[in-house]
Write a structure and sequence with these properties.
This protein is α+β, with helices and mostly antiparallel strands. The protein has one domain: Alpha-Beta Plaits (2-Layer Sandwich). 27% of the residues lie in helices and 40% in strands. The protein is built from 2 helices and 5 strands, in the order βαββαββ. It has helices spanning 17-28, 51-63, and strands spanning 2-11, 32-37, 43-49, 70-80, 89-91. Strands 4-1-3-2-5 form a 5-stranded mixed sheet, covered by helices on one side. Strand 2 (32-37) and strand 3 (43-49) form a beta hairpin. Helix 1 (17-28) packs antiparallel against helix 2. The longest helix has 13 residues, at 51-63. It starts with a strand and ends with a strand.
Length: 93
């Protein structure tokens, strides 16, 4: 099992990006974690699950996002994990 932290930069706040991210992550059904706005205008996504599902989430963030978003840049940090820290995928503040 893996985790990935994604920082998305661009037009990602005020465009329902967190809601769409939560919906997509929950549709994957085996991804847990959170999405939140950062003070600097970025959105942080932290997700845990099988690598193939996390790769789908990363691809979705980089190529789609919410209808009103415009992703200019993403940064990712991957890690191997033994135990999940989260039980579902939430919007946090």
């Amino acid at each position: 099992m893996k985790s990935v932290q994604i920082l998305a930069t661009g037009r990602v706040q005020g465009v329902f990006f967190r809601v769409y991210t939560q919906k997509f992550a929950r549709e994957l059904s085996d991804v847990t974690g959170y999405v939140r706005n950062l003070r600097d205008g970025q959105v942080e996504i932290f997700a845990e699950g099988p690598e193939i599902s996390l790769s789908k989430l990363v691809n979705w963030v980089q190529t789609k996002g919410s209808p009103g978003s415009r992703i200019m840049k993403t940064q990712m940090k991957w890690a191997d994990i033994n135990v999940r820290e989260y039980s579902d995928f939430q919007i946090t503040y």
